[in-house]
Amino acid sequence: MNKSDTDRVLRSMPPEGFLKITRPPSPDLSSEQKVQLIRKGNELFGRGEWEQAKKIFVATRYSDGMIRLGDQFAKQRDYLSAFQMYKMAPAPDRAEAMILKLTAVLKNWLKE
User: Fold this and answer.
1) How far is it, in rounded angstroms, from Cα 105 to Cα 42?
2) What pTM, to 2 d.p., does this model score?
3) pLDDT value of position 54
């Protein structure tokens, strides 16, 4: 790969770069508060407000919601966001599938 190819690949990467995937600590919420937030997150998810639902699902550590968001992001071909959700859920099989998709994307970039 020559310098111009390298520069082109670097320019085509997302501006935020590669994300460190961590699971933030859960805020101190009562069981009742968690249930209410998860219901709100599910409502937002149902309306297609993915980013708002994501904030709630991650904050409450709602694995099922994060997996459903990962599935939604994968359908939209946003494989990096899908991987992030699967990794935090945790859903190792789905995360592995996203690694394979992301690897294929990188291979295509390098071929160009």
Assistant:
1) 31
2) 0.71
3) 94
Distance between CA atoms of residues 76 and 80, nearest Å: 11
Mean pLDDT of 58-83: 93
What one-letter code names the amino acid at 46?
G
What mean pLDDT do residues 8-20 have?
A: 52
Sequence-separated (6 or more) residues with CB below 8 Å from residue 111: none
Amino acid residing at 18: F
| Burial letters 47-82, b for 16+ CB under 10 A, else e | eeebeebbebbbbbbbeebbbbbbebbbeeeebbbb
Q: Return the SS3 of 94.
A: helix
Residues 6 and 14 sit within 8 Å (Cβ to Cβ): no
What domains can you pick out in the chain, each with its CATH number? Answer: 29-111 (1.25.40)
pLDDT band at 11 (very low <50, low <70, confident <90, very high): low
